[in-house]
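Quick log. Single chain, no ligands specified.
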Amino acid sequence: MPRLAPGRHPCAVFRGSSVDQVEWPVTGRESGSTSVRDCFEYKSRMKFTWKWIAIPLLLGAFGAAAAPWTFSGEALRRELADQMMQTTGLRAIATGRATFAILPRPRIKLEKVSISDENGSLAVVTDFLKGDLRILPLIAGRMELASLLLVSPTITYDIDGQPLKQSGAIARASDTLPATPEAAGADEARLGVISISGGSARIMSKAQGFDTRVDDINLTLDWPRLSSPASLNGTITWAGEVAEVAAWLGKPAAVLRGEQSSMTMKIESPGLSLSTNGALSGSPRLQYEGRVAVATRSLRTLMRTVGVQVPLPGPLANVSLTGNARAGMRSIALSGLRMTVDGNSFEGTLALQGTNVRPTLSGTLASDLLILSPIVSDLPSLTGPEGQWSRAALDLKSLDFADVDLRFSAARARLGRTVFEDTGCSILLTNGRLDVTLGQARTSGGLIKGRASLTPGVAGVDLRASGVFTKIDSGALMKDALRGIRITGEASGQFSFDGQGETVAELIRSVDGRAQITFRNGDIMGLDLEQALRRLEKRPLSIVTEVRSGRTGFETAVVSARLNDGLIELDQAAVSGLGVQLAVTGQASLSDRNLQLRALARQTSGPTASARESGPQLLMEIRGSWDDPALIFDTDSLMRRSEAAAPLLRALEQVPAATAPAQAVP
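-> predicted structure:
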């Protein structure tokens, strides 16, 4: 059992062990023993005594330390300005009332406060600034903010100015070398918690052409020390929608010195969902690399909100993408991309690069099934309400905003009811000139290739187009594209034309070019010329109605034409088949959309035989709108061939012309 030195209380040596009692020698007092409970009571009395001694001392020290700020608003303003400068390098000026309170916790309140850097790149103006103070520094006579609240501030932030890199603890930390004593010392600087309640901000960058406004800002930045992780949480209102924001940066000080730090961020709003997880590095320039997932109801609306016009066709609605992102201040590259837009799914890569002139969008995308209807539905209409060519002005100014180099491939592509397979195309937009190239597309058993370009010119829009197609099943293609069949057979041909104009109507009227099409082993639907020629000798007048039913088979049909100022002149239009030959001359107007053709059908004994000189012939004219042309026959020649009508026609021809009666001479 432990022995107690003379004059000492037994509980002074009691340490809470298993010893129940402590004995001490008698020195002017009775010997005895002390129990464990007696020792606990002794310690409680000592704590109670020291508490009532310490509290007045602390309050006295606290009051003495707080006295300069309690009675002097100028001292509060000065301390706030000094700490703001030391920590962030920003100037803080308070012109309104300043108050200081100790209970329930030490805090300050300043009115009419403005915070800015030397160049004005960052400017914060708030009616009220509230701050909580750390107690120990306050007792030592220093005012050190643990948290700061800005009430309804107005913020202007120019990204190009880099205001936090001029002076202060943040700037000092960024100027030190990694893994040095200087860096370790700089990282110990205290920051704290900064909150914004009901604020608004304008964020801009002239170098990047960026200018946007954020309202109803309610955010909290928690960054205790430079060496500690930093987190940002809260809500903002952007483009009329409330968004929840959450971000975390593991090593902010490392990023300031050009090193790397893990980072996560999430934004959720009705119109935008964004989440990313990766690494942020600061050298040689600020760059982020990680996994990203984005979804938006309308990409066009989202980009328009930040002042960016998207020069791509289609609604660009219901967009979602996931992939590996590598982003800098003026560029972003996406690899391993999976994207859905306008109901179409793509895989591939995309890259957006900002330049001083215009941004550049490039990429390669592949799709199993590409629905083209949403894309072409957003293009300007070719016709007006009255059914004629549109007279609305063609505006290509939006195409000058960006340069685009996109390449698409699709196992299957669909436009209306027409299906294309193994399709490859590219969209190239350079300095406002649009080039669309169809590398190949298989449809209706054949192959199509083509190219079209639109260039803004002095006289409006310059259009150039060319194409070639081989072994196309014309009947199947017309059935899918036009919902009707006018000619069948295997079609091959080529075309090229150009034109210019400020409207679609003007452009069509100026078209010049050439076209040639060859059909093999097909039929002309709705016209039975072979049967009409056989009946021409016996019942010539009946063929007027009978010829419009059935079909005319042919071995070959060749059409060669010149385009001049919107007028199609037929150089050759000949059909050769079993029992019939058809030659067509005349012209068709693209601008008026009507036909003026003359056709001569002659009977033959075979597809390669010449027409019988004395055999039956049928002369026809095709006139009117090309949507519903009229077929007109030479009724005089038909009546001469009719045994019943010929005598009547001859009698009418023999009747002398009526003469005017003689007038009396006055």
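Residues 36-70 form the longest helix (35 residues).
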